[in-house]
Structures are given as structure tokens and as C-alpha cells.
Amino acid sequence: MKKKNIKHPKFYNKIIETRQKYIILEYIDNEFDKTLNRKIKSKKFEIDKSLITFSEFINKLNEEELEKLNRFIKVQNKAMNYHKKKNNIDSYKTIKESIKLMNDFKENFK
Predict the structure, then answer these.
(1) Start-end of H helices in 7-88
(2) What is residue 47's predicted lDDT score, i.e. its pLDDT?
(3) Which of 5, 26, 63, 67 maximizes the CB count within 10 A of its CB?
(4) What is the mean pLDDT of residues 48-73?
């Protein structure tokens, strides 16, 4: 199977700072801290406030990230089925756990 460098989906949950030309958003992704909680990170976006509201901007970002997440889960399911068919039990269990984590992460988008 071909390996790709995958950028895991993010969930943008709140505005940290706004200025005339940019916005800083707080987000979580697939990185965990020592206590197994998702790390809270931030990202700066250059935007024109006259073209879009902040809530519309966050909603648009999260829609795109949800699409990425759904594609990621679909690919993981295919890989899991492949490993199950080939009787690679360790790989199967690892991917199954990954899918469970991604489905748990998906709950943020609801």
C-alpha cells in the first residue's frame, strides 16, 4: 500500500484574537498531551472582515475539515478491511482504534 503524508483534520472551536487584517483561532487536532487530552493550538488567518463574518469563516473552515475527516475515515476503513482480509491482526486492531478515535473526534463537529 502507498503511504501518503496526511494532514489530519482540525476542529476550530473559538476566536482568540481579531484584528483588522487577521484572526487567530483556537483548534484541536490529533495531537495529544501527556494526560491523553487533545492539545489546544492556535492558528492565524489573514482575512478581510468586510467580506465574511467570523462565524461564517469558522463554519466554512470546519465544513472543510469535516470533509477531510470523512475521507480519512473512509480510507482507514478500506485499510482496516485489507488488513483483516490478509489476517494482519495487529495492523487491523491499530487501524480500528484509529477509526474509533476519529469517530470520537467527529462528535466535535455536531
Answers:
(1) 54-85
(2) 84
(3) 26
(4) 90
Number of domains comprising the chain? 1
Indicate whether 4 belongs to any domain.
no
42 domain residue, yes or no: yes
User: Counting Cβ atoms within 10 Å, is residue 68 exposed (0-12), middle (13-18) or buried (19+)?
Assistant: middle
| Beta strands at 22-32 and 38-46: parallel, antiparallel or unpaired | antiparallel
Dihedrals phi, psi of 29, to nearest 5 degrees: -140, -145
pTM of the predicted model as reported, rounded to 2 decimal places: 0.86
**Domain enclosing residue 71, as ranges:** 11-109
**6 neighbors 104 (Cβ within 8 angstroms):** no
pLDDT in tens, 2-33: 666 777 899 999 999 998 889 999 999 999 99
Residue 5 domain-assigned (yes or no): no
